[in-house]
Design brief:
Shape: globular
Strand content: 15-25%
Distance between the termini: 22 Å
Largest sheet: 10 strands, mixed
Number of helices: 12
Structural class: alpha/beta
Bound molecules: guanosine-5'-diphosphate, 6-O-phosphoryl inosine monophosphate, magnesium ion
Radius of gyration: 22 Å
Number of strands: 20
Oligomer: single chain
Strand order of the largest sheet: 9-7-5-2-10-1-11-15-19-20
Length: 425
């Protein structure tokens, strides 16, 4: 069986949701393995817009089973809300086609309070998190005081765990950040009523996937965020709190895999980043503004404007290696239409020397100067094209050059947000 792993090759928002939706046509299981509702995927099908934060992007296809693995952190309030929104849009989100690992950690109100309080106190030094409590929830998981989805089946255990967590959290909130402490009863009263809503969705994701494998079914593992937001391999400390790389599919689902996966990196034709942190190819000029406007580069989760810049091959090669990418899906090529010239960063100047690798030390990436190669742009819009051969020669040359520099084939080229606006190569 050949499974598919999809990961972001940059700093998130590469268009993973669109490509997951597209490729889940031939797949029976679509599985999230990390992250939480810091993710925001906008998917357009036949002109209708869906925004997903927790529910896997395969949900828009009938007959797929969507799984949320143990590596995800799940906010029960947001999960219930997302189910309501999708049901209102006519999507079947019943427990027969959407299941959550009983081992998934829950984001609690104090995680969100702490995330926001820390960011506010850090002021200029903030990470620019989504404020969704992601980091504090993963901290509690590692500290072994986390609350897992299965705990909702035992409300006295739930209350006792909330009390344990709040003993420390309230000291932090009140003493370090001057925020009102949270009461055990207040937190319990917010979460406990969601138990009956969530419990029907709980399952053993690892066993489900093993049974699927034995039955010859295929799974698609849907990464959230992007490679350079990985807690180990990304631009630390300006990262998220999970491993976003493809290797985390095993730990984040309990499925060891077949060893024959297609590992697809989703790459935007240019680069964007939301939040703080180094971004060597960032544009602070009219071209950056044009990319933001033409690409609609505003976050699906927080609405923040995304920082925009040129393609960065140094970081892309890292992504190829860190994930073991077997192919790349290139998105938003249409957004580059109208630019007279397109730049590709092929190396960095760092401390007077040319280098092909990002510096490893903290702040190193913030001190590099990109070395650019220039390519001619094209003027015509690309949205209407359905084959690679129809694209203007300059657009084809740009795709071929990226492929050559990355050392991995670009098998899909996306020229618009709709499922249909995709060229297979
Ligand atoms: P994700 O988090 O990686 O799934 O990406 P987001 O959904 O946050 O951001 C990608 C945005 O670009 C969404 O609004 C998509 O609808 C849109 N999009 C995806 N592919 C294309 C494309 O090829 N062209 C254009 N113009 N928009 C695209
Ligand atoms: P998708 O799946 C882009 C960024 C935040 C911040 C950093 C840490 O839509 O691509 P966190 O809330 O995770 O502690 O924030 O990570 N970030 C994302 N940026 N796309 C995302 O998800 C992101 N999820 C987190 O902006 O810089
Ligand atoms: Mg997104």
């Amino acid at each position: 069986m050949s499974n598919i792993v999809i990961v972001g090759a940059q700093w998130g928002d590469e268009g993973k949701g669109k490509i997951v939706d597209l490729l889940s046509g031939d797949i029976q299981y679509v599985v999230r393995f990390q992250g939480g509702n810091n993710a925001g995927h906008t998917i357009i099908v036949d002109g209708k817009k869906y925004v997903l934060h927790l529910v896997p992007s395969g949900i828009l296809h009938d007959g797929k089973v969507c799984l949320i693995g143990n590596g995800v952190v799940l906010d029960p309030v947001i999960f219930a809300h997302e189910l309501d929104v999708l049901a209102g849009q006519g999507v079947d989100v019943s427990p027969s086609r959407l299941k959550v690992s009983a081992k998934t950690h829950l984001i609690m109100p104090y995680h969100k309070a702490l995330d926001m309080a820390r960011e506010k106190a850090a002021a200029e030094k903030k990470i620019g998190t989504t404020g969704r409590g992601i980091g504090p929830c993963y901290e509690d998981k590692a500290a072994r005081i986390g609350i897992r989805a299965a705990d909702l089946a035992d409300l006295s255990l739930l209350k006792a765990k909330i009390a344990t967590a709040l003993r420390e959290k309230n000291v932090l909130l009140a003493s370090c950040y001057g925020v009102d402490p949270l009461g055990v009863e207040e937190v319990f009263a917010e979460i406990a009523p969601l138990a009956s809503r969530l419990l029907p969705y709980l399952t053993d994701v690892s066993s489900e996937l093993e049974a699927a494998r034995k039955a010859g079914k295929k799974a698609l593992f849907e990464g959230a965020q992007g490679t350079h937001l990985d807690v180990d391999h990304g631009t630390y400390p300006f990262v998220t709190s999970s491993n976003t790389v493809a290797g985390n599919t095993a730990a984040g689902t309990g499925f060891a895999g077949s060893g024959k996966d297609r590992i697809i990196g989703i790459l935007k034709a240019y680069t964007t980043r939301v939040g703080e942190g180094p971004f060597p190819t960032e544009l602070h000029d009219a071209v950056g503004e044009t990319l933001r406007r033409n690409g609609g580069e505003f976050g699906a989760t927080t609405g923040r404007p995304r920082r925009c810049g040129w393609q960065d091959i140094v970081l892309l090669r890292e992504s190829v290696r860190l994930n073991g990418l077997t192919e790349i899906a290139l998105t938003k090529l249409d957004v580059l239409s109208g630019l007279s010239e397109i730049k590709i960063c092929v190396a960095y100047e760092y401390r007077g020397q040319r280098t092909d690798y990002p510096p490893q030390e903290e702040n190193g990436l913030g001190a590099v100067t990109p070395v650019y190669e220039n390519m001619p742009g094209w003027s015509e819009p690309l949205e209407q094209y359905t084959s690679f051969a129809q694209l203007p020669e300059a657009a084809r040359a740009y795709v071929r050059r990226l492929e050559e520099l990355a050392g991995v084939p670009i098998t899909l080229v996306s020229v618009g947000p709709d499922r249909e606006q995709t060229i297979s190569r």
